[in-house]
Every structure is written in structure tokens, then in C-alpha cells.
Amino acid sequence: MSTEPSEPSEPSEFSEPSEPSTTLSVVVPMYNEEDALPALVGRLRPALDAMAVRYEVVAVDDGSKDRTAELLTEFQAKWPELRIVRLRGNSGHQAALTAGLHSALGAYVASIDADLQDPPEKIPEMLDLARADGLDIVYGVRADRSTDTGFKRHTAGAYYWLVRRLVGKQVPAQAGDFRLLSRAAVEAVKAMPDQHQVYRLLVPWLGFPSGQVSYQREERVAGETKYPLSKMLRLGVDSIINFSAAPLRLATWLGVASFFGCLLMVGATLAIYLKGQTVPGWTSLFIVMLFLGGVQLICVGLLGEYIGRIYTAVQRRPTFFVGYDSHAPARNTERQAD
């Protein structure tokens, strides 16, 4: 029985186009960075062009309100390796970084902020180290933070001291979000179900082979910091609660301490009563009630923080929505990621 040759099937509109081999992706989250963009491109492009590898730069516009999107489009016309991923709204630095990691195509993915406090000239050194030693992670470690304010240095030092005590010494001291990951590390990070990503703790938690490249932290090239005190505190809370049960243990120890404190006060009260020196004790009673009430509220607040995060994780709401990706203009409709 003869069969007629089948007609070639039409490509599906949902099929992914074949991609050229990309060795390196550089993810740059940015929010209102119109002042810093020219300097960033002026330093990042020469550093990457000098490398004998195929690369892409994934600029993630986190819902900027200034001319960041316009400038990116202008630079892209002259720099074909520049790829623009625009989020529909401001989702936060870590969410923008997540969007970049999910979009990156490279066998290695580096991440760097747009303010040039981390030198892009170190990226080739990171890639060389990862390839030479077979490393999955290369951290950029700040050897000198003299350009930061005293408040910034002390709060950063306290943060890294605390998280290393709570999470473990695998967390490199003075390492932020300037790092390079292999494709295996990127896929492992993407598989994590965390809703509140803190990559400076999540990446070390993987335990993959890692190395370090040290550098001197520079001053912000232009614009204003996107990490005021409130966001620094939020990052600290996310870091501790996402990776440690120590606050729950603290609540337990506060309860134990308050219990023994109350026992001591009961003993002192009985001693005064037996001596016949009892006086109206409104002040002491009021203080004890305030103390116990404060401890209880702290404990309830800590429990609520953990329960709230469990509730958020169960909802599995997306942390960002991609509104535009210059790499795939035909699919720039309602893209989202968990």
C-alpha cells in the first residue's frame, strides 16, 4: 500500500526559535537610571567586546518612571547585543534580578547593578576563573568599602555578621549581587520556589563549587541610591526569616526569660510580705504587665511573619510581569513568571 509523501508541517506559533550559542549573559536590573546609563554602557560594552565570546546584556527595566526605557532603546540601535526586558510595574530589585535570570540564555550569567559601584571590568576575570577551575559560582567580594558612608559600612558589616551566624559561614562576607553563575546554578536557582528571593543567601545555600574575585567598591556614578534605610531593613528581615528559624527560637527564649523573671519577682514579693513591708504595688504590677504584654506581642508578631510567608508561598502569585522583551517581540503579551 503506497503512501503519499507528507507535506512539511508549518512551524507552530508557540515554537521557540533556534538560538545561537551564547556564552555569557549579563543581567542588569535598573530603576530610574537615566543618569547612570551612559556611563554604564561606556564601561560595560568595551569590557565585554574585548572578550572573545558571544554575549548578551539583559537590561531589566523595573518599571522606571524616567527616560531609562527611551535611552535603552537608543543604545540598543547601536549595540545589537543589548536586550531589553521591561516589567509592567515596579517589582523590586530582587524580582527584576529574577526576571533577568529567567530570560538569560548564556552558559554563564553575570549580574551587576547599573550604578557602577561594582566594576564591569571584573566580569571577564570572573568568567576566566569559572572556566579555568570548573566553578559554578564566582562571587564579587568587596575588599574595600571606603567610598561608602560610615553608616553604610557599619550596617552592612552588622548584616553580614548576623546572616553568617544564622545561615552559616558559606555566605561570603561583603558579597552582594555582583556574581557569575553557571547554567547549572541558574537552573537550580530558577527551580527554587521562594517568593521573597534573597540571592546573596540563596546562591551560597546551593553549595555549588565557588570562587571569589575581590575588588574595590566605587562611588555611585550618578543618580540616587535605590536602597534607602527602609529597603535595607526589609532585606535584613527577608534574609533572616527566609533562611533561619532563629527568630522563633528567640521568641521561645524571651518566654523562658520572662517566666524566670516573674518567678524572681514572686519570690521578692513574698519576702516583702513576710517582713510586713507590703505597700500598694501598682507600679510594679503595671511594669510586669507591660513587660509580659510586650514579650507576647513580639512572639505573636514573629509567628505572624512566618505564617504570612507560608500564606504567600501557598498563593504562588507571580512576583513580576514581563511586558516587553526585545528578544521575542512576537510574544510580548502577558508574559509572567512565578
Give an overview of the whole structure.
The protein is α/β, with parallel strands linked by helices. It folds into 2 domains: 24-243 and 318-337, Alpha-Beta Complex (Spore Coat Polysaccharide Biosynthesis Protein SpsA, Chain A); 246-315. 46% of the residues lie in helices and 17% in strands. It has helices at residues 37-49, 68-78, 93-103, 123-133, 150-166, 183-190, 199-206, 229-243, 246-274, 282-315; strands spanning 24-30, 55-61, 82-87, 108-111, 137-144, 175-182, 210-216, 320-325, 335-337. It has a 9-stranded mixed β-sheet, with helices on both faces. Strand 1, helix 1 and strand 2 (55-61) form a beta-alpha-beta unit. The radius of gyration is 26 Å and the shape is elongated. It starts with 23 loop residues before the first strand and ends with a strand.
